[in-house]
Write the structure tokens for this entry.
Amino acid sequence: METSEASINANRANAQSSTGPTSATGKAKASLNALKTGPTGVTVLLPSDDAEPTNPHPLLRKTIQARRP
């Protein structure tokens, strides 16, 4: 099924106003949208979390200790 010309034009018009965040705060929040967390993720803690948790989960503690040089 082909898309109608009216639908294509409406899509193009909507795309002009959908440009994403423009403020520095909005861009900073949007940059965390795909953040992967946990032991297999790129980042274990979010920037707003404490750098050193006071009582991390035992498995997390073992993983952190095992990966330190």
About this structure: The helical segments are 5-17, 24-30, 58-67.
